[in-house]
Amino acid sequence: MTTHRIRVGIDVGGTFTDAVAADSATLALVGQVKVPTSHHHEDGVAHGIVTALDKLLTETGHSAKDVSFLAHGTTQATNALLEGDVATVGLIGLGGGAGALFTKRLASLAKTELIPGKHFPLVYAHVADPADRAAVERAVEEVVRAGAEVVVASQPFSVDRPEGEDAVREAAAARGVPMTAAHDITSLYGLQKRTRTAVVNAAILPRMFATADLVDAAITKAGVEAPLMVMRCDGGVMSLDEMRRRPLLTVLSGPAAGVAGALMQERVSEGVFLETGGTSTDISVVRRGKVAVRHATLLGKTSYLSALDVRTVGVGGGSMVRMSGGKVAMVGPRSAHIAGLPYACFAAPGELAGAKLATMRPTPDDADDHVVIDAAGGRYALTMTCAANALGRVPEDDFAHADRETARTALAPLAAALGTDVDGAATAVLDAGTARVREVVDAMISDYRLDKDAVLLVGGGGGAASVTPHLAVATGLEGRLARHHEVISPIGVALALVREQVERIIPGAGQEDILAVRAEAERAVVAQGAAADAVEVEVTVDPQTNTVRAVATGATELRTQDRAHRADDAERLRLAATSLKAPEGEVRELARTNAYTVYGAEKHRRLRGTRHPVRVVDADGVVRLHAPDARIETTTVGAAAHTLATLVDESTAYGDGGVRAPALRLLIGSRIADLSGVLDPQPLLALARTELEGRPADERVVALVEERS
Question: Can you tell me the distance from the alpha carbon of 262 to that of 277, in angstroms, rounded to the nearest whole number?
Answer without folding.
Answer: 16
